[in-house]
Amino acid sequence: MNLPGHPDMNASFPLLVSVAVAATTLPLMAVAQSSEETVTLQSEGQDLVATLQLPEGNPAPVVLLLHGFTGTRDELVIPSTDEGVFERTADTLADNGYASLRIDFRGSGDSIADFTYESTTFEGQISDALAAIDYLEKLDSVDGDDLYVIGWSQGGVIAAAAAGRSGKPDALALWQAVGDLDASYGGMMGEETLAAGKAAASDHTLVATLSWGPEVSLNSAFFHGIEALDPMAEIAAYTGPLFVTQGTADTTVLPASADAYIAAHEGPEQLWTADMGHLFNVYSSTKTLDSMIADTLSFFDDHKD
């Protein structure tokens, strides 16, 4: 998520991480060279811009990274390292033998040739994620048969839906994934704005003032999607391995969302719990984020084909 002014930025959370299901910190491989390029794929006939990062060696297993509400493919910049959360994640993936594709959903970042953020919908982003999965399955430079997905925040609920509808990922990681849409979006933009958006006629634009300060214009279709999308039904359709993070200090996506995802899912799963806010404590240090990335990778390693 791209959240200038978000309350997590002013918080100083303890860095101790507790893991609900025992996880082993991943020993990182020696840093290897990786290549990175900007690619453009198609979603519903429109341009989707992404960064493809490849480790050295043979076609590697690949991870699709899905950003959050108002975010972009590199995600939130970490002050101490001047890199995006997903940039850091992609580098760690490459160091451990995984390729990655991080996309800008249509209307976000560089994916604006055919689309504006105002036109963003949940179903549109799900289509983007499915298009990216299809792209990776056909891409010769990666092992598209060994495919994983990570989604953060709104990207998490999109990842859950894409996994449930495609059945494709060999494992799925939901990082602080929105589970109760009314609670999260009502908290971010206010209950009155949420109600007005749901009641608005089709193709009506509303301006929402977010709880951390900025304004964002959204079509009523976004709000109608909040009513229509059922995250727990989406994840229930996915029976593959599921890794879910739970931040006990998160006020944007409440800890109950992680519990709900685990309860709705049938299959191998791990609930990873830490004393962190929605931004993984990156305004204090990268310790919590790095631990979460390492344990996500360990989970993927444990569930390879």
Automatic annotation (TrEMBL):
Residues 61-169 form the AB hydrolase-1 domain. Its EC number is 4.2.99.20. InterPro entries: AB_hydrolase_1, AB_hydrolase_Est10, AB_hydrolase_fold, Pept_S9_AS. GO terms for biological process: proteolysis. GO terms for molecular function: 2-succinyl-6-hydroxy-2,4-cyclohexadiene-1-carboxylate synthase activity; carboxylic ester hydrolase activity; serine-type endopeptidase activity. Keywords: Hydrolase, Lyase. PROSITE patterns: PRO_ENDOPEP_SER (PS00708). This is 2-succinyl-6-hydroxy-2, 4-cyclohexadiene-1-carboxylate synthase. It comes from Granulosicoccus antarcticus IMCC3135.
